[in-house]
């Protein structure tokens, strides 16, 4: 076992981000970090530090020459090169040049019609029942549908069987390991190969390999064009000096996008409805005033950040809150805590639809700076399409039983079951 890189620091909170006291009251922990006047934490379990204050997080993100992404956004140190969130400039700049066109407004808008149709068809399928678990029915399926549309392959096998169950098992296991001390490869290797999560990870990986081969073949035969899907775009875009993404990187991109774009948005969608149905007067108000959709989405993202925090690793010894941090230490940037910083957001625990939206958009739920989420406009569009479909169609919407929280993914905090009911007309 290697020597710990971190140690408890006087005045800093000691937090195990994987354990019950944090998981059952993470907002209470963030509130204490802010009120203590010393918004830093140490975690002996996992051997890392954490930063909770909005300004400190932004300061770290501005110094990307010191605080690196190369060891990955998870706690375990990445050994094989990753993509985007796991690389630094100039490699990051090269990758961004290649992927920039795939994340344009035009590409996202070209999906709108299919997105609207998908959500409406989902609603059609359960409307007459008068009740549903909205999380499973739409929050999980919709973001996966969107990502698969972007990547260009279906959510069903050739015989029509849905791939969602094993994709979900793989995703939950994969993201669930982000706070494990070892890296993803080692974590997967330590699991039983028959575990549904491991089976899901393996099947998903094979799906990416097959899709890459398919794209190459169909591009060569002329059946598909450069812009047929994101993978075709990757295969036909050159960066500076004519360099292109390797097959390994393209497969890495598919995995990253599926995870980054679906697990997060799933949480956001259920949180939006949960907030509307539990905050006094919110549902009635937003239902009648559709111009409030954007602030509803943004305020939910601020107050209920889907991703609690992600890591950076310092290249050289630095000081953090007056404490020397030795090189190559993992430090967690707590987006969710920065969003509750009373120095930036007045009365931060209050869900307030009358806030100024530009001020709310200072939330860190999509990160900040070099690695700011490239899918943010798409996630916001998903939220808006979701609200536009649900609120007018499901009248007298209400909670219909116990809302369960997802406990399997400590780094993402959100709902697992959202039972709702409405009046069928
Ligand atoms: C509510 C939904 C979402 C949340 C909360 C979210 C959150 C984040 C965060 C916190 C980061 C920054 C990572 C870091 O600094 O280490 C990020 C990066 C990223 N996200 Fe998202 N994301 C969401 C949806 C999406 C969607 C729908 C997509 C794609 C379709 C996407 C694609 C990306 C990409 C490509 C990056 C990497 C940017 C870079 O390194 O240059 N995200 N996301």
Short description:
The chain has 425 residues and is of the alpha+beta class. It has helices at residues 20-24, 26-35, 54-62, 91-99, 105-109, 112-126, 134-151, 164-176, 184-189, 196-221, 230-236, 247-278, 282-288, 293-303, 335-338, 357-360, 376-393; strands at 13-14, 40-43, 48-51, 67-68, 131-133, 310-314, 318-320, 323-325, 330-333, 395-399, 404-406, 414-417, 419-423. The strands form four sheets. Strands 1-2-3-9-6-4 form a six-stranded mixed β-sheet, with helices on one face.
Molecules bound to protein = protoporphyrin IX containing FE
From N to C, what is the helix and strand string?
Answer: EHHEEHEHHHEHHHHHHHHEEEEHHHEEEE
Mean pLDDT: 94
Largest sheet: 6 strands, mixed
Describe the 3D structure:
47% of the residues lie in helices and 11% in strands. By secondary structure, it is an alpha+beta fold. Strands 1-2-3-9-6-4 form a 6-stranded mixed sheet, covered by helices on one side. Bound molecules: protoporphyrin IX containing FE. Protoporphyrin IX containing FE is lined by residues 73, 84-85, 96, 147, 257, 260-261, 264-265, 268, 306-307, 310, 335, 365-367, 371, 373-375, 378-379.
Write a concise keyword list for the protein shown above:
binds protoporphyrin IX containing FE, single chain, 425 residues, 3-stranded antiparallel beta sheet
What's the SSE blueprint?
Blueprint: E1 13-14, H1 20-24, H2 26-35, E2 40-43, E3 48-51, H3 54-62, E4 67-68, H4 91-99, H5 105-109, H6 112-126, E5 131-133, H7 134-151, H8 164-176, H9 184-189, H10 196-221, H11 230-236, H12 247-278, H13 282-288, H14 293-303, E6 310-314, E7 318-320, E8 323-325, E9 330-333, H15 335-338, H16 357-360, H17 376-393, E10 395-399, E11 404-406, E12 414-417, E13 419-423
Parallel strand pairs: 1-2, 3-9
Antiparallel strand pairs: 2-3, 4-6, 5-13, 6-9, 7-8, 10-13, 11-12
Helix pairs in contact: 6-7, 6-17, 7-12, 8-10, 10-12, 12-13, 12-14, 12-17, 14-17
Protoporphyrin IX containing FE binds at residues 73, 84-85, 96, 147, 257, 260-261, 264-265, 268, 306-307, 310, 335, 365-367, 371, 373-375, 378-379.
